[in-house]
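Appendix B: a complete holo record

For completeness, this appendix reproduces one full record from the ligand-bound portion of the collection. The bound molecule is adenosine-5'-triphosphate. The inputs are the chain sequence and the ligand SMILES; the output is the full three-dimensional arrangement of the complex, encoded as structure tokens. No fields have been trimmed.
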Amino acid sequence: MIAFPNAKINIGLNITNKRNDGFHDLETVFYPVKIKDALEVVESSEMDFETSGIEIPGNPDQNLCLQAYNMLRKDFDLPNINIHLHKNIPIGAGLGGGSADAAFFIKLIDNKFDLKLTNERMEAYCRKLGADCAFFIQNKPVFANGKGDEFEDIEIDLSAYHLVLVMPQVHVSTAEAYLGVKAQTPKHSLKELIKLPLTAWESKIVNDFEPHILKNHPKIAALKKELKSAGALFSLMSGSGASVYGIFEEEVDLSFLEKDNLVFTDI
Ligand SMILES: C[C@](O)(CO)[C@H](O)COP(=O)(O)OP(=O)(O)OC[C@H]1O[C@@H](n2ccc(N)nc2=O)[C@H](O)[C@@H]1O
Ligand SMILES: Nc1ncnc2c1ncn2[C@@H]1O[C@H](COP(=O)(O)OP(=O)(O)OP(=O)(O)O)[C@@H](O)[C@H]1O
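The structure of the chain with adenosine-5'-triphosphate bound, as generated:
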């Protein structure tokens, strides 16, 4: 059985409070995009985990797909499987790629082995793996708060626009991003700002990670400027970075960008 975990972008991100458990409360809008990995599971006599595509840093035993499998195995009688993950979603990009893999893996195992898990139960498993992970169970645009794992439905549809995402040769770890940020109550709630017409979003809808990440990584700051100059109605770093997206009214020629950037169009 095969699944295609997709990435997300954050449209706005306010860090509102530093919690006592080492995490932060935030407000964000998660929007699914079409940049995808491929994940295949087949039943087998022995456990095996293989990857291809972009190299994943860290110990393969700690891959979120395996962590998800080990967690499910504690509660269900599951057979050995072979997992193949083809990695295409950039890592350290603020695109939630690892979280997407884990959530889609749980949905795939539920489907393949007929576990009959509800969305709520799958989201509960996801929350144990990472703050971003639960979003990918329902995988639809939402306003999120708490650790980024409590959701409210919102009306938002960007399908009339051209979304472009650029990933520079810069890697920002999520932990690094949170270390440099100061929590504060935003002047206007993102839940209200997101209702404004898209042409009014620029400078009102912000990402609280941007000030320090753009300062420490001038390549990301330069990219954001370039997308603006190319006519983006709105552009923002996604999550903790390093990727930056632009929302354009028309298709845009980005051949002027430096060749070492990864560019995804019509995401
Ligand atoms: C930056 C975002 O992508 C925005 O959507 C997410 O908040 C990150 O979520 P994630 O990658 O799933 O994060 P996790 O793997 O759960 O946590 C990594 C580290 O980020 C910090 N962290 C994460 C989420 C959160 N709400 N507050 C935090 O302070 C913690 O130091 C944590 O140890
Ligand atoms: N399936 C996986 N895909 C990618 N990274 C994984 C995976 N499993 C575990 N990881 C670990 O998670 C780290 C970062 O993952 P991810 O791509 O989600 O980060 P990100 O781009 O910063 O996204 P975000 O901050 O939005 O969650 C990697 O460095 C890797 O060690």
